[in-house]
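Late entry, evening session. Most of the bench is empty. Finally got around to the prediction I had been postponing all week. Sequence below, unchanged from the version circulated by S.P.
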Amino acid sequence: MKKPFYWILIFLGLIALFPLRQYTDVVQFNEVSKDFGAWALLPSLVALILCFATKEVIPSLFVGIFLGGIVSGKFNIVQEYLIPSIGSAKYGEILLVYLWCLGGLIGIWTRTGGAQHFATWAGRRIARSRRSAKFFAFLMGVLFHQGGTISTILAGSTVKPICDAKKVSHEELSYIIDSTASPVATLLPFNVWPIYIGSLVLGTSPIFADAAISKSYLFKAIPVNFYCWVAILFTFLLSWEKLPYYGKRMQLAMQRVKATNKLDRDGSNPLV
């Protein structure tokens, strides 16, 4: 079955759930706990399963969003969720700071030759092989630990020329940069993450009664944030090529670049 047809069937199935949600009491809002109970887990669970099953992240997230609208009973997700979000002052701040200012900074860093000069300097002194280049990328990801967006853009634009020169496949580089972005920002929360996490959990339970307690939750949860610890450990091991299991596609990427010096697989369409 072709993927477009597969997704059409999924979204038609979601549309078929609208009358079931509207005219039945299958999903009920708990007035005491102020939630939908176990049904609240369904959108995230379905989105995760679809991500792993189809390898298509964006459509899977859309399915999760639509399913969240069905569970909440607010079917017009554009009017109920999207427009209020993009029309808020917070969204304007994100747009200004993270996209325009950060994009301008990266543009200056690239067009003035700063990135290339730094790559040349680091290549002579630090990154002298494939392994050391990947480890350098890991260190830059840890250094620029201000969040998923900033870390990815700054670290990626800085180390890409170095890793390209040392024949590090773009699959390896993407994994290293991505897995040292949000995980490190969460474990070293000297950034906006405490505020973000605090806003997510505020009011979800009597435990998180005010903003101060909600923000401190992130710091107390650091030792048990197993995903972040494991992600950083795996990235460190990958940078030194000591990871016990790489996965079929990563192994093929490593074999390809060593045998042919091709940084991208045939038929790929890199954005940068």
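Two things to note before I forget:
Residues 63 and 72 are 14 Å apart (CA to CA).
The two ends are 31 Å apart (CA to CA).
Will write this up properly tomorrow.
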